[in-house]
From TrEMBL, chains A, B, C, D:
<comment type="subunit">
    <text>Homotetramer.</text>
</comment>
<dbReference type="Pfam" id="PF02894">
    <property type="entry name" value="GFO_IDH_MocA_C"/>
</dbReference>
<dbReference type="InterPro" id="IPR023794">
    <property type="entry name" value="MI/DCI_dehydrogenase"/>
</dbReference>
<comment type="similarity">
    <text>Belongs to the Gfo/Idh/MocA family.</text>
</comment>
<feature type="domain" description="Gfo/Idh/MocA-like oxidoreductase C-terminal">
    <location>
        <begin position="140"/>
        <end position="329"/>
    </location>
</feature>
<comment type="function">
    <text>Involved in the oxidation of myo-inositol (MI) to 2-keto-myo-inositol (2KMI or 2-inosose).</text>
</comment>
<keyword id="KW-0520">NAD</keyword>
<dbReference type="Pfam" id="PF01408">
    <property type="entry name" value="GFO_IDH_MocA"/>
</dbReference>
<protein>
    <recommendedName>
        <fullName>Inositol 2-dehydrogenase</fullName>
        <ecNumber>1.1.1.18</ecNumber>
    </recommendedName>
</protein>
<dbReference type="InterPro" id="IPR036291">
    <property type="entry name" value="NAD(P)-bd_dom_sf"/>
</dbReference>
<dbReference type="InterPro" id="IPR004104">
    <property type="entry name" value="Gfo/Idh/MocA-like_OxRdtase_C"/>
</dbReference>
<feature type="domain" description="Gfo/Idh/MocA-like oxidoreductase N-terminal">
    <location>
        <begin position="8"/>
        <end position="128"/>
    </location>
</feature>
<dbReference type="InterPro" id="IPR050424">
    <property type="entry name" value="Gfo-Idh-MocA_inositol_DH"/>
</dbReference>
<dbReference type="InterPro" id="IPR000683">
    <property type="entry name" value="Gfo/Idh/MocA-like_OxRdtase_N"/>
</dbReference>
<keyword id="KW-0560">Oxidoreductase</keyword>
Length: 342, 342, 342, 342
């Protein structure tokens, strides 16, 4: 495929997660477009497709994948439906981004893996999105430098405000701790060899019968421990934290700071060395906002008046610097074109 | 213009900033493409154009704007060249994103403003990108709620590791404090009415003759004060901080925490309520990484093996929960397709 | 004087501050006792004296200083009365701890200084207690190491919840900023050479007519600047912060962290290397609590039961370590002597 | 005993910990004095006694306790010697502060407890000094308010730079985790019912054969879990942290911040409302420094010159406020009496 060609994507499943991916590909992602959406609820698929230029709604995933417009597949249907969608994509040799879990159990996951191995090349990226989170990425990079030495333990906290009504005690493991399972494997580069789960008396904030919170200890084949507090009815917020304890220091993410380390008698974080790092997001959002407004036929953001006012103040500032005195700023009258608001 | 049509942009100036905007539009921004680049250095323009599909190099900005492919202009040339580029864009009624400063002095900025007013509609967005920085946006939003009461003072810190060789004492005002001038006007919604600049004995880390650091006090027509420490050879990092002191509390950004407030006997920040807030960036980067790899014909990221391993561990975890005991995990053999790395 | 002899102190002034010093010398300070209290309000002096063993009440300071029991004087009366008390102590060559301000104006302070110089030796310690605050002490020590280079600027914040009814706009300077005046001189080792005061529109939380907040800029004879936000009706709490900006880094105290530095690409603080540093206060308070209880004829704090329970749990812990298994703890029955509470 | 009488204390054991307690009682503690020190090493006892006025050295603890000067006993000898010293104090009905551990094993602790119960009143305070640490005290107080709801889990971190040469794997439990055992019991008000110890592959920073770090999970009879990371060769510092996870929020101490809570969508800490809270330690240290200097016949701390200079600057400040202008400060010449240093 020519790198410059825009990728046509079929999104399978248009529930909350699928619809959010449709919006993301349509509005945020560069180099791709939503060519097709699939849902067994035809009305829902058509409603989503209606909001996207050149997007067709399907009920059958295989039919969507057969379309000449479709170059790749994003699977966001319920876990139970993943195996079928993945095998259909394999049959057409289409790359797939598959939301987690890959499939609901180890046996079906093994079948999918065997099918991919039979193809002889990878097609699947699993949706463990924490591997793309800036804080986890920085933590992984720091561990990779070897500055802290070998990781010995990983302490994880995973807290949700409240669990949805259908949540069961097992789902704290399969739906929530599943993320820490992947994070542990990825950060440490170990496989997990044993699991222990301890349950304190449940919180009175948890629905009756739900074992919440739980405390999970994972042991790895590299001799490390990873403990997880999972608390899905903590009531106060959504919080995901991790601290890697290594031979020569620790590093922690997720508690309102940037990455914080303990090392050589000091705790703290790094300071960027450059505006490209500090304001990368601001530049991206600025240009995206300008493109979006321009496509709508609008002009928004800082105006010529703002540019003029800054120039006038800076001129006064330079005089203040040169004279060592307070200098008053005088501005032209503000044209109505620029509204009343600064 | 149809919202769905991809915007063709001419980037004027292909120095460090212009080239970075070309990369941004080509790789990050959704709904736009670089149709043209302009530089008085033809070789530089052509080198940049060569890296972008369907992009033409020009020496003359007006010629580029005349192209049928160009719907909008991004001006990233040196400040002295802005007025001419802006007036050329006005002549063709093209929307412009103009890097700061709008122009180097108040008189020329006034001429540009008068030309835009004569057109009768806005065409210009000035590149004060801090208005798009997440931390400043949160601070502005908080001030807008009125929870903290009326702002009385704004304390700003603006620190660079080292200044470039051509930097003069005036440029600390016109190049650096210019950002705080805009931030003060935007956050407070006031115009600036007077400026005082105080200079301590220069740092021995500053080049000879440079008045660095400086301390600038801005007074506003709304009765507020905004003080700015500008220190362009601080040596230790790039740091931009602001604290708004209001009638009922203060709010601070930029020092390794998220937005921190002092209010009603408590200091601290907010906790997100949802994973959509905490992991928005991770989802965006995940999908962008998948699209980029797929367009290159590659499959990267978490593999089917990772999905299978997670399923196997979660199954063991559920058994551990149900039995209250440590459960060992057993995995199938890892196929060579997935490499040696976890 | 023999170092081991207990110091007899006359406390002059038994208002809020004086009474607190009486309590402090009686209950907290080692090696001293309150021998006399003085107040023009005889009843108040007697009430305070009644709570302290061997303490005599006086109306006249000079009479108290004449007592053979009095070795030193602590002046905590109103500022206007300080000059007379200091001169009386000088007449008897008694050491004095004098609450700030030394006297209310420069002329009277000069008279006191001339009298002390005439004596030929120092007798006075002025009550600038911030020089004894752990955070300021650490900041001063850090500046003294030279690690950060020469100090260029000092940013100070001084916030009170609400001002007392008698507070005037001048008192924000003479009563509040007086502390930052001393802190600036002490931290930097410079004299102050000029002062500028800027006032934003007063907060609606300030009493009518009070210029609150104010922004004060001090210039020093060493070429440094020290700016002070003084805000005595901030509404949210009592907050005293300082950031020293030096040639190679900055150091900040007072905002809910320990001393935090910016240096060489890192922000953060130090980690103690030893329990003697981390728990010094706990040991002091533990022993003081034990002494106080014992003198009252009581036994409080962790009991023999607590010691026993810890021993039993640790024994089980060692078995758990040795066997790699969960070990249950069994305790003897808890004797009634130790109450019901753990 | 009359509350005002100074308490005569016998300190048993004059090793590192005992000597530190002697210094503390002599120099820091109000209302007590060291009447006797006891050590089987007579030379060491005498050396310590020589530094304290009116202190007698003994080799035999019982003999020291028989002295009329001794009102109470502080036991700081090795753990194995505690039982005998405690029983001797019981025989004379003397109150005891006994360093932890009470005794080295549960059986001997039980014997001590039975002896005290037989007396019918408490004599022993065990030296679990964390119960007096400001941060733990604040955490306990917060839990007591019920704002956070019932505690469900306690996460503890206990890290030392390096272990002493004689440290064994069991001592990580009996010497180190012993503190968390008490903290868990005290903070939660529960007894501990079971213990599990997990060991990752030891750190290469630990001496050969030492199982370090260890991860200990304590279960309580109140249905809570308390996990402890104990890592006695972490290399970077001494760190003691705890986070209580409750039904409606969490609270954390020990990581370079004051007490930080997660509650109702906010993380953060409290701001003092008053200078008596913020500067309590500074006032105590100021007065102690003055008393100590005066007893040595010296005058230290802020001088009359400092008081005068502050008065002069404040006068200039008031004029700057009144005139809205920069006002220069002029000072008298500095008398030689006050040295050259500000």
């Amino acid at each position: 495929m020519n790198r410059r060609e825009t990728l046509g994507i079929a999104v399978v499943g248009t529930g909350r997660m699928g619809a959010d991916h449709v919006r993301r590909i349509d509005r945020v992602i560069s180099g791709a477009r939503v060519a097709a959406v699939v849902d067994i609820d035809r009305a829902r698929a058509e409603a989503v497709a209606a909001g996207v230029d050149g997007c067709t709604a399907y009920v059958d995933a295989d039919e969507a994948m057969a379309s000449a417009d479709v170059d790749a597949v994003l699977v966001a249907s319920s876990g139970a439906a993943h195996e079928e969608a993945l095998l259909a994509a394999f049959a057409r040799d289409l790359p797939v981004l598959c939301e987690k879990p890959l499939t609901p159990d180890a046996a079906s996951a093994l079948r999918v893996m065997e099918a991919e191995v039979a193809l002889g090349h990878r097609l699947v990226q699993v949706g463990f999105m924490r591997r793309y989170d800036t804080e986890y990425v920085r933590l992984k990079a720091l561990l990779g430098t070897g500055q802290l030495g070998r990781p010995l333990m990983l302490h994880n906290r995973h807290r949700n405000v409240a669990s949805p009504p259908f949540f069961t005690s097992s789902m704290l493991i399969t739906d929530s701790v599943a993320h820490e399972v992947d994070v542990t494997r990825w950060l440490l580069g170990h496989e997990i060899s044993a699991v222990t789960v301890l349950c304190p008396e449940p919180s009175s904030g948890a629905p009756g019968g739900l074992r919440d919170p739980q405390f999970v200890v994972l042991e790895t084949d590299g001799g490390a421990l990873s403990d997880v507090e999972i608390f899905v009815n903590c009531g106060f917020g959504y919080q995901v934290q991790a601290e890697a304890v290594c031979e020569r220091g620790t590093a922690r993410i997720g508690d309102g700071h940037e990455l914080v380390t303990n090392m050589a008698g000091r705790w703290g974080g790094t300071i960027p060395q450059d505006w490209t790092e500090r304001f990368a997001q601001a530049y991206d959002d600025e240009v995206q906002a300008w493109v979006d407004a321009t496509r709508r036929g609008e002009v928004t953001g800082p105006s010529t008046w703002d540019g003029y006012a800054a120039a006038a103040v800076c001129e006064a500032g330079v005089r203040a610097l040169e004279t060592g005195r307070r200098v008053e700023v005088s501005l032209a009258e503000r044209p109505g074109l620029y509204g009343a608001e600064v």
